[in-house]
């Protein structure tokens, strides 16, 4: 049994003539906190979409614990233990904070339709357990007091947190966070990063996150993959990335001919 | 064999009428991503406009080219005004609303036109003015080419070529294509999407106006519910060709016209309407994007 | 047996109401009341698809027709049970009509619900028309002449109680489904399909389930309709009947059972209220007013009368405010 949880084997995504991601290969080890960084338009979200089955890679494949995820639908990949948040927040806006979290627990509910109609003890217990677990998760992120408010009424930062709670409620092996700190101020970001580190310990999670802010990623990530124009230009621990000429060039831009 | 060729001629003639109406569906869908259910009723109003105007001028029994052109113009103008009014009053306030609401509004507008039509025009069919005499232009063997079919073909080809020119060769056509592919980017580049959308409704509706006169000429009974079935078939044609795709609408309409003619000729006329939906369901199962359409990937 | 408590209490309350109506109303209003019950079934079930799941069906009348014709045929050709327990036989046929409609819903839903966008609306519309055309061509079901001589209950009270049984079943089924993980999954499909998939919801399967359940109750509604009118023909189940159901759901507020019920009763009573206007003007303005109000509701109050609130939510809010 290897210690690799998620592996991308030369995945390529082509939209028409444009190669958004070009034969990208990387591994995320069990329990690792990995970062995927790169300038705007580097193809980071496209990578997430391939990992979660929203897009099928044009070539190459994604493996979870050495099993291929090729051809699986997003919900099937979620059942295997890969979950995510979205860059442009996709909460169930019309529903309450609690309902958002409960929905994510659907895959672990094993009662049938008739159990719900007849209100069997099994049904009632499953529902109660689900609720308790959801409230516990909300509590970690200090959202439990707002459980019955519409999710759209939350301030921006809390909506991002709720997306993380919702993702956690699927009971994942690995969680993919797409710019979890976007739009947060410095102290909020700092706090969020601490929470992420904490939940990783508590739930024995593996985390892969996309962030723009390199400084921030350096703080918590153990392994960083740098993407530019759909190609991996560097990978390694924070020290290595910080010292890499290629990364600096990608971010600052190189003047041709110099 | 002669029969078969005759059926092909009839089918193409029917198909080109479907095409004129299908274009309206496909253009509006391309730009607003909505099914304009009211389109078929705009077409119905066009037929009535021509009917009343002909009576007003006293040319309902005066067939000829001038009558044809007069009625075409009247119907086109009335349809564009109605299309414009519908867009302005019913659809524009809902530009940002959920798709379901827009769809329901479109159905509401459609029903409103149909039932107001029954109140205003009366529910019983009216006889459309005689636009042109139907005679055999020339004969090849036993195959007859009638003036109606030729007129339908000529008029629709002219209308479609004009549309082609408008969309691909003019400035406003370029703006239409821009809004259709991405309205917010287009507006950043100085295109006013509302104006372009209104213009699209004008163009689509006036094509329906052309269609209404041609149908009135071929099947001279008009009533307030006349748009329902033909509208559905034109819509199926648009889906068949790939909704949002102008060339696809014409292709789909020709296929619909031909297959309907063949079904009636060689199978049975009771299945004529069920057949259209049969085609639709088969298409949706095997090629949901239509023949010429591309299935777009939603951005996440 | 605790799960039966609320439904039984509701049934008893409805039956008591029926007893009052039995003596308090004339036959004409009693028939309207029965139609209101049928419409309640239609709107509650359609709300499941249009309101909760966010899909758009335009062929509800087609499913209703299947249930109606099944019951009509079964009641005139088969004899399962002795006369004394006739009502149970009616119940079984209504169940059968519902199952037939549900099966048709599965056949229609599977191909069309995979697709995004408005295709379901068109496919269901087409399906409704195909059913109607097929019925017109089926001689053993009466064809265009219709199907007459369908046995009924004979008395208003029994009809009303029979309707109440189904209303209670329909209401509590949908209510309980909506308060289970299945219902929450339906809602997630409405809210954001991509996020729902990412959270492990098989959105296509959820849509099909909602659609099949909805078709089932439309079939039951059709069966009741057949019993109450004793006569059906294909033109009872036109596109307009489907639109009528949509109007009820939209007007009541998509995603509110309270709204569906209130709107169904309102829409059933409206033609009677508009009768004086029709006498006055001499033309049938009903559909003009319907369609215009549909447009106005969409523009001015797109969430409908109740939005997605239920009576119970409002009560809770009221209690919270006053405490």
General description of the model:
The complex is a heterotrimer of chains A (258), B (300) and C (323). By secondary structure, chain A is an alpha/beta fold. Chain A folds into 2 domains: 168 residues, Rossmann fold (3-Layer(aba) Sandwich), CATH 3.40.50.300; 79 residues, no CATH class. In chain A, 39% of the residues lie in helices and 24% in strands. Chain A is built from 10 helices and 10 strands. A 6-stranded mixed beta sheet of chain A has the order 6-7-8-3-9-10, with helices on both faces. Chain A has a 4-stranded antiparallel beta sheet with strand order 2-1-4-5, covered by helices on one side. Chain B is built from 11 helices and 4 strands. Chain B is mainly alpha-helical and 300 residues long. The relative contact order of chain B is 0.20. Chain B is globular and about 60 Å long. Chain B has one domain. Chain B starts with a helix and ends in a 14-residue tail after the last helix. Chain B has a two-stranded antiparallel ribbon. In chain B, strands 2-3 form a two-stranded antiparallel ribbon. Chain C is mostly helical and 323 residues long. Chain C is built from 13 helices and 2 strands; from the N terminus they run αααααβααααβαααα. Chain C has a two-stranded antiparallel sheet with strand order 1-2. Chain C is globular. The chains are: A alpha/beta (258), B mainly alpha (300), C mainly alpha (323). The interface between B and C is large, with 42 and 41 residues.
List the helices and strands and how they pair.
The complex is a heterotrimer of chains A (258), B (300) and C (323).
Chain A: E1 4-15, E2 18-29, E3 33-37, H1 44-51, E4 59-64, E5 67-68, H2 74-80, E6 82-84, H3 97-104, H4 113-118, H5 121-140, H6 156-168, E7 174-178, H7 186-203, E8 206-211, H8 214-220, E9 223-228, E10 231-236, H9 238-243, H10 245-252
Parallel strand pairs in A: 3-8, 3-9, 6-7, 7-8
Antiparallel strand pairs in A: 1-2, 1-4, 4-5, 9-10
Helix pairs in contact in A: 3-6
Chain B: H1 2-32, H2 39-57, H3 65-91, H4 99-121, E1 126-127, E2 136-140, E3 143-146, H5 147-169, H6 171-181, H7 183-188, H8 193-218, E4 221-222, H9 226-241, H10 246-267, H11 272-286
Antiparallel strand pairs in B: 1-4, 2-3
Chain C: H1 5-24, H2 27-52, H3 60-77, H4 86-112, H5 119-136, E1 147-148, H6 156-178, H7 181-191, H8 193-198, H9 203-229, E2 231-232, H10 239-252, H11 257-281, H12 286-300, H13 311-322
Antiparallel strand pairs in C: 1-2
């Amino acid at each position: 049994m290897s210690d690799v949880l998620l592996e991308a084997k030369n995945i390529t995504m082509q939209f028409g003539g444009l190669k958004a991601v070009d034969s990208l290969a990387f591994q995320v080890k069990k329990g690792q906190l990995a970062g995927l960084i790169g300038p705007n338009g580097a193809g980071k979200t496209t990578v997430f979409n391939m990992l979660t089955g929203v897009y099928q890679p044009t070539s190459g494949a994604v493996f979870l614990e050495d099993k291929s995820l090729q051809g699986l639908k997003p919900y099937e990949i979620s059942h295997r233990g890969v979950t995510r948040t979205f860059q442009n927040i996709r909460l169930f806006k019309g529903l309450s904070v609690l309902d958002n979290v409960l929905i994510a627990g659907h895959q672990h509910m094993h009662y049938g339709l008739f159990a719900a109609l007849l209100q069997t003890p099994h049904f009632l217990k499953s529902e109660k357990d689900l609720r308790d677990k959801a409230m516990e998760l909300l509590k970690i992120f200090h959202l439990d007091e707002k459980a019955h408010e519409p999710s759209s009424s939350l301030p921006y930062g809390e909506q991002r947190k709720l997306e993380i709670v919702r993702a956690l409620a699927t009971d994942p092996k690995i969680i993919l966070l797409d710019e979890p700190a976007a739009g947060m101020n410095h102290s909020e970001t700092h706090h969020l990063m601490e929470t992420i580190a904490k939940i990783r310990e508590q739930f024995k999670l593996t985390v892969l996150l996309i962030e723009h802010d390199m400084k921030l990623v350096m703080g918590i990530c153990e392994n960083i993959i740098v993407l530019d124009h759909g190609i991996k230009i560097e990978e390694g621990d924070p020290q290595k990335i910080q010292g890499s000429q290629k990364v600096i060039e990608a971010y600052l831009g190189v003047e041709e001919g110099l | 064999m002669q029969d078969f060729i005759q059926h092909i001629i009839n089918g193409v003639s029917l198909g080109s009428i479907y095409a004129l109406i299908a274009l309206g569906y496909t253009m509006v869908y391309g730009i607003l991503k909505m099914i304009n259910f009211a389109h078929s009723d705009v077409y119905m109003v066009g037929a009535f406009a021509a009917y009343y105007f002909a009576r007003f001028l006293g040319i309902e029994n005066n067939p000829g080219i001038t009558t044809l052109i007069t009625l075409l113009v009247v119907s086109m103008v009335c349809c564009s005004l109605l299309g414009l009014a519908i867009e302005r009053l019913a659809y524009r306030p809902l530009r940002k609303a959920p798709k379901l609401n827009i769809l329901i509004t479109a159905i509401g507008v459609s029903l409103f036109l149909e039932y107001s039509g029954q109140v205003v025009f009366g529910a019983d069919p009216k006889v459309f003015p005689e636009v042109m005499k139907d005679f055999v232009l020339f004969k090849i063997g036993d195959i007859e080419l009638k003036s109606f079919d030729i007129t339908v073909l000529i008029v629709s080809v002219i209308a479609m070529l004009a549309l082609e020119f408008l969309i691909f060769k003019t400035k406003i056509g370029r703006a239409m294509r821009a809004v259709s592919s991405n309205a917010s980017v287009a507006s950043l580049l100085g295109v006013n999407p509302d104006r372009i959308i209104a213009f699209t409704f004008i163009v689509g509706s006036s094509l329906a106006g052309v269609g209404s006169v041609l149908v009135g000429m071929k099947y001279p009974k008009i009533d307030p519910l006349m748009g329902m079935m033909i509208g559905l078939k034109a819509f199926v044609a648009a889906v068949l060709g790939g909704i949002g795709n102008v060339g696809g609408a014409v292709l789909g309409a020709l296929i619909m016209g031909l297959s309907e003619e063949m079904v009636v000729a060689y199978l049975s006329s009771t299945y004529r309407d069920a057949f259209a939906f049969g085609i639709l369901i088969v298409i949706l199962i095997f090629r949901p994007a239509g023949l010429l359409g591309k299935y777009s990937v939603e951005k996440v | 047996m605790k799960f039966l408590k609320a439904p039984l209490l509701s049934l008893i309350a409805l039956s008591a109401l029926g007893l009052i109506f039995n003596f308090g109303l004339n036959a004409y209003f009693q028939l309207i009341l029965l139609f209101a019950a049928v419409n309640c079934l239609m709107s509650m079930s359609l709300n499941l698809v249009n309101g909760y799941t966010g899909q758009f069906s335009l062929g509800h009348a087609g499913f209703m027709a299947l249930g109606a014709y099944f019951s009509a045929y079964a009641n005139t050709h088969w004899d399962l049970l002795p006369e004394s327990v006739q009502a149970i036989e009616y119940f079984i046929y209504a169940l059968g009509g519902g199952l037939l409609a549900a099966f048709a819903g599965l056949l229609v839903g599977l191909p069309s619900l995979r697709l995004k966008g408005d295709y379901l609306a068109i496919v269901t519309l087409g399906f409704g028309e195909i059913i109607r055309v097929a019925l017109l061509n089926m001689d053993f079901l009466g064809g265009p002449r219709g199907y007459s001589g369908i046995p009924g209950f004979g008395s208003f009270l029994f009809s009303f109680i029979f309707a109440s049984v189904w209303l209670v079943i329909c209401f509590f089924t949908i209510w309980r489904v909506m308060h289970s993980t299945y219902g929450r999954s339906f809602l997630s499909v409405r809210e954001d399909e991509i996020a729902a998939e990412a959270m492990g919801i098989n959105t296509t399967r959820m849509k099909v389930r909602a659609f099949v359940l909805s078709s089932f109750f439309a079939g039951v509604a059709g069966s009741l309709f057949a019993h109450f009118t004793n006569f059906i023909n294909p033109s009872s189940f036109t596109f307009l009947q489907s639109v009528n159901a949509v109007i009820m759901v939209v007007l009541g507020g998509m995603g509110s059972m309270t709204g569906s019920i209130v709107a169904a009763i309102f829409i059933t009573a409206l033609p009677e209220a508009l009768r004086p206007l029709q006498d006055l003007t001499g033309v049938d303005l009903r559909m003009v007013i319907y369609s215009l109000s549909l447009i106005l509701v969409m523009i001015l109050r797109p969430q409908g009368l109740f939005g997605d609130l239920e009576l119970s939510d409002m009560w809770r809010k009221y209690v919270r405010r006053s405490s």
